[in-house]
Design brief:
- The complex is a heterodimer of chains A (about 350) and B (about 200).
- Chain A is of the alpha+beta class and about 350 residues long.
- Chain A has 2 domains: about 5-160, PurM-like, N-terminal domain (60s Ribosomal Protein L30, Chain: A), CATH 3.30.1330; about 170-349, Alpha-Beta Complex (Phosphoribosyl-aminoimidazole Synthetase, Chain A, domain 2).
- Chain A has helices at about 20-30, 75-90, 115-130, 180-190, 195-205, 210-215, 230-240, 260-265, 270-280, 290-295, 315-325, and strands at about 40, 50-55, 60-70, 95-105, 135-140, 145-155, 170-175, 220-225, 245-250, 285, 305-310, 330-335, 345-349.
- In chain A, the strands form 2 sheets. A 7-stranded mixed sheet of chain A has the order 8-11-7-12-9-13-10, sandwiched between helices.
- The mean pLDDT of chain A is about 90.
- Chain B folds into 2 domains: about 5-70, TusA-like domain (Translation Initiation Factor IF3, 2-Layer Sandwich), CATH 3.30.110; about 85-200, DsrEFH-like (Hypothetical Protein Ychn, Chain: A), CATH 3.40.1260.10.
- The chains are: A alpha+beta (about 350), B alpha/beta (about 200).
């Protein structure tokens, strides 16, 4: 039998690490004309996870897309992770996924087409788990391969969850541990055991759909999901969008096993430095903060967890609900404070 | 004595940083080693790691190869703030901080003010003890851009372990954020904290 094809040999950086830098995106979209219609409830101006369009009093459509180059060797697993990551934007808005289209770039002359079949089967597996219909797609011959989805979801217009409604006094809860970028980089240089690596991959495959259900059941109105800009990048967007200051307890943030040791070795992916430059002017790092922890807080995540804001009296109930819904690492990691002019958007202690 | 040279050419992130971290553990305090890298991203990331950890370094370049001379600090890594805890009450022994609020020194003809501020920044590195930090705000941020006449002096100070803070709001206001070529873009909180922890503040 032929040795299985290793997708990782096609790329230098995979997953959400391959995103363009946030700073570059900001300058890029500036000056591109947008047609604002009153039905467009969430557009591109707030760096939110997905666009939302109001159809009628009871229904709004959520639209989002995401794709990236391979971040693991196994094609089926790559398909699962890319799909979970793309679906996540719908869940971060509090929605239900109804339909998905495949986005595929694949070099049919260079790699056996059976590899693509595995990728698509992996993606279909997660779309089915989300209860959505896989309804077609688009395929381009290109190298290295890339895969993702365009996803459509629905939500009640009064129950949209955005990243710009954080209220002073609320507590932030993170549902998945961080460190996927570091673990992937560590695995590529042979410094991660098979078990730790598999644990990271399994975490990326976990859909955020159950988390969205927990959020709706508890009336949450502000959340996002953590992906390529790292935990702090997404917290900055939330703080700026909500005009608040967010204070994070660095040591409370759940980490993937082995991620801290790798960072301490100097295994810090390039994407972390890129994210650090983006958040520099918005974040104050307290003097006692452990350097390794600081760098993990900007580690680019692929298919990361939901980050939600809830009233302090709900923290216990929501954390428990998330833990029993399949996010055992869920933890409170910080709080929202009144914005005062002299404070930066985010403070890390 | 033969200097230790770590050749990280041909490798990409995070390998050069891993090699640096490993060598820092093996090198005795106050001794030096050289790291060779051949891509700008690795060079910038290693430099950022070193300045964030207040480790002294000096970079020179030949063709594609950057060679970074790194000095292992006296105190242990991860405890770079020891002096903050050991500082006697009153804070008088805290190191000084320079605060540049404009791109000229003193009030008078602009041409003279610019000559003076250049001379001032070029002289800082000759004066012992070195400051803990240089803070730039309002039109002072113009001194940190890629076309600044004092860019080299500022880069040399940064490499000797002086932290350089550039007001992000100001750089945005003047629309020169992309041109800032030294130090880190900072915010009011960090700037005020740096000023308030300083032994004394010099405002040229």
């Amino acid at each position: 039998m032929k040795a299985p094809f290793d997708l990782l040999q096609t790329v230098e950086q995979g997953g959400c690490s391959a995103k363009l830098p946030a700073q570059l995106l900001d300058t890029l979209v500036k000056g591109i004309p947008v047609l604002n219609r009153k039905e467009l409830l969430v557009g591109s101006d707030t760096h939110d996870d997905a666009a939302v369009w109001k159809v009628d009093a009871d229904t709004a459509i959520i639209s989002t897309t995401d794709f990236f180059p391979p971040l693991c060797s196994d094609p089926f697993e790559f398909g699962q992770i890319a799909a979970a990551n793309a679906l996540s934007d719908v869940f971060a808005m509090g929605g239900t996924a109804i339909m998905a289209l495949n986005l595929v770039m694949f070099p049919s002359s260079k790699i056996d087409i059976a590899v693509l079949k595995e990728i698509l089967l992996g993606g279909a597996d997660k779309v089915a788990e989300a209860g959505a219909a896989l309804a077609g797609g688009h395929t381009i011959d290109d190298y290295p391969p890339k895969y993702g989805l365009a996803v459509t979801g629905t939500v009640h217009p009064d129950r949209i969850i955005t990243n710009r409604r954080a209220l002073p006094g609320e507590v932030l809860v993170l549902a998945k541990p961080i460190g996927t970028g570091t673990i992937i980089a560590g695995q590529r240089i042979g410094k991660v055991s098979a078990a730790h690596y598999q644990a990271a991959l399994d975490g990326m495959k976990v859909l955020n759909g159950k988390g969205a259900e927990v959020m709706q059941a508890h009336g949450i109105r502000c959340a996002t999901d953590i992906t390529g800009f790292g935990l702090l990048g997404h917290i900055c967007e939330m703080a700026v969008g909500s005009a608040v200051t967010i204070r994070i307890a660095g040591t409370a943030v759940p980490l993937l096993e082995r991620a801290y040791d790798l960072t301490d070795m100097g295994c810090i992916p390039g994407a972390s430095f890129r994210n650090l430059r983006y958040v520099d002017s918005l974040v104050h790092f307290s003097r006692g903060l452990d350097y390794n922890l600081k760098m993990l807080l900007v580690d680019a995540q692929t298919s990361g967890g939901l980050l939600l804001c809830c009233p302090p009296e709900q923290v216990g109930a929501i954390t428990c609900a998330l833990q029993s819904a399949g996010y055992p690492a869920s933890a409170a990691i910080g709080r929202v404070e009144q914005k005062t002019p002299q404070f930066p958007a985010v403070i890390v202690e | 004595m033969k200097r230790i040279v770590i050749d990280a050419r041909g490798t990409v992130c995070p390998k050069p940083l891993i090699l640096t971290r490993k060598q820092l553990q093996e090198t005795p305090p106050a001794e030096t080693f050289v790291l060779l890298v051949d891509n700008d991203t690795s060079k910038e990331n290693v430099e950022r790691f070193l300045s964030d950890n207040r480790i002294m370094f000096q970079t020179s370049r030949q063709g594609d190869t950057s060679s970074i001379l790194i000095t292992k600090p006296l105190e242990e890594l991860d405890h770079p703030e020891a002096e903050d805890f050991c500082r006697p009450a009153g804070g008088l022994s805290g190191r000084h901080v320079y605060c540049f609020t404009g791109d000229q020194m003193g009030s008078g003809p602009a041409e003279l003010g610019q000559i003076l501020i250049q001379a001032c920044i070029n002289t800082i590195r000759e004066v012992e003890p070195r400051p803990a930090a240089l803070v730039f705000y309002n039109s002072g941020v113009r001194l940190t851009t890629d076309d600044s006449p004092v860019l080299q002096a500022l880069q040399a100070l940064e490499k000797s372990g002086v932290s350089i803070l550039v007001c992000g709001t100001c750089a945005n206001f003047f629309q020169i954020k992309e041109q800032v070529s030294v130090g880190s873009i900072s915010n009011m909180y960090t700037i005020l904290e740096t000023l308030s922890r300083a032994g004394h503040v010099i405002s040229p």
